[in-house]
Amino acid sequence: MTIAFALIIAAIIPLVFLYAINTIDFYQTGSIKFIVISAAWGIIAYLLAATINPAIINNGFASRDTVLRYIAPVIEEILKGFILIVLVRRTEFKYFLDGAIYGFATGIGFAIFENFEYIFYSASAIELAISRILSTNLIHATGSALIGIALGLVRFDRSRLSRTLYLLGGLILAISIHSFFNNMVNNRVALLFAFAAGFTGIGVIVLFARRGLKDEQSWVHEKITDTEGVTQGEAKVVQQLGDINTLLAPLAERFGAEKASQCEKFLFVQAQLAIQGKMIEKMQDERMRLAIEAQMRDTRKQVDKARRQVGTYCMLYLRNIFPADDATLMNLMRNRIEASAVANKERVGSGLWDLSERLKINQLKKSFLFRGLSDKALDAIAQMVREHKLVENDVLVRSGETGDSIFMINTGWFKVVTEDANGGELIINKTGPGEIIGEMALLDEAPRSATVIALAPAKVFELKKEAFQEILDQRPDVSLALINGISSRLRFSTTYIQKAIDWSQKIAAGDYSFIEYTQQQNSKDAESDADKADQLLSAFFQMVESVKAREDDLKQRLEKLELKIDESRRKQEFEELTGTDFYANLKAQAKKMREQRIANQDEE
């Protein structure tokens, strides 16, 4: 039982040390898989060393004392370092922080199994386990971690000579520390000195690891604002990840702990993307550059997936933790304008470039999206807008097409239509000045859901997809206005459907009383959603009224036809019963009645 408990201690506590070292990897650039591989290789390295060292002694190549003091440190550090030489050529080995962690894992794997061997042959297993954990284990971990750090320091150097010299330097340092410790232990110095040596070693590794983390932090601050797929608002939050719990506390309170956890994961993946961008910049080996670029493509997919998990509304809140100011948006837009002007010189002077600054701003203020922005911000946005003029029946957007722009109506009215089952035009809405058209296709990247046609001469402003998305990223207030606009349309759709169901049920019951009400609504301007729905549905139900009129006419005709049919049926039945002609009999009876009336008059 004592040995079993000692074995558990000898395994668990070193793993706790490894976990503590791994927590320094704040941006999670390392790979858990590689940590496991490194630890597993440490076990293999121990088994190899446990075979080689006794063979040297047994074959008389060196004494046991010489092997323990000088030869074993060389063999063991070389064996442990082999896996690090392999891993340094992988993209998951990003910097010497990763090298320190992978090397530490290798040393821990080696030390745990070496602990097992000593414990099995010890009379005081628990004491031995604890003493080895706090001394020998930490020396093993320190030695291989130093080799990983040396390889990480020369990670971006293309020179083979430099890489070799750094590897040899790290290896010699690891062997020297290991040999010094073994000599100290064999000279039977106080156990306290062995503990001091072990903790000094781990202290050195922690210092190197923190230095590596500091370098990675500077990379994130430098590259995150230029990283593709990361907005300015998100970049500002990523730059403050050191205080992530405080930053996300209000978000967790508003959206819940699970959503806050998703946001945290999203931000850390973006930080990893920035670090990979810096690696490409520093990497001189072309093959490794290509491998890192492939890794960045995968990381961008992770960013997109994480962004979808967070959700639009929560993402707006996250970006608004450090909202962009108007100057940032204005500078961004002007940079885009300059780039666009160089690439498209023939377009300069078109659109709103010809309008006065004040007129541009006033026109944009008509839109529910931008009416809350300052003149400074509106001026920057206006530079990216182009004006289009349309005449009656011009198609602005067509159902099924891919959307790459949104349109703001300045003047004129449009009908939003789809096709019914027979291919006919079905009007589902009417929209006018200040309204936005086409934003849904940009948000969900699906084809246009409806066709928009001018009802009269109109003017619209076009804003391209890239500029629109940048505005959403920079201005949470615009994003919230967009959400409000979409909510308004959803409410209108709900009202429209409710009205249609209500009126259809009345028709089914034969109640057409509402038609007079729809005619009254058509004679005035619609203000509420209900009034707009009434006007749109009235065209359909006016058709219902004409159907009802035709139905009434058919009923009257049917009644007349039934009278004729009844008269004909009575004639036929009379003739069958009397064997005489029905009309001849009627004439005879009429003649007889006249004669009788004349006779009565003569008698009087």
Number of separate strands: 8
Structural class: alpha+beta
Radius of gyration: 43 Å
Beta strand %: 5-15%
Count of the domains: 4
Q: What is the general shape?
A: elongated
For the largest sheet, list the strands in their spatial order.
Answer: 1-8-3-6
Distance, first to last CA:
147 Å
Arithmetic mean of pLDDT: 79
Oligomer: single chain
Report low-confidence residues grouped into runs of 5 or more: 324-330, 340-356
Keywords:
604 residues; alpha+beta; 4-stranded antiparallel sheet; elongated
Model description:
The protein has 604 residues and is of the alpha+beta class. It has 4 domains: 2-215, no CATH class; 233-355, no CATH class; 368-474, Jelly Rolls; 567-603. 71% of the residues lie in helices and 7% in strands. The protein has 22 helices and 8 strands. It has helices at residues 2-22, 32-58, 64-87, 96-120, 125-133, 136-153, 160-186, 191-223, 232-238, 244-255, 257-282, 286-310, 312-319, 326-343, 357-365, 375-382, 439-444, 465-474, 476-508, 514-522, 529-578, 582-603, and strands at residues 386-390, 395-397, 405-411, 414-419, 425-431, 436-437, 451-454, 458-464. The strands form 2 sheets. Strands 1-8-3-6 form a 4-stranded antiparallel sheet. Helix 3 (64-87) runs antiparallel to helix 4 (96-120), helix 6 (136-153) runs parallel beside helix 8 and helix 8 crosses helix 11 (257-282). It starts with a helix and ends with a helix. 32% of the residues are buried. The model is unreliable at 324-330 and 340-356 (pLDDT under 50).
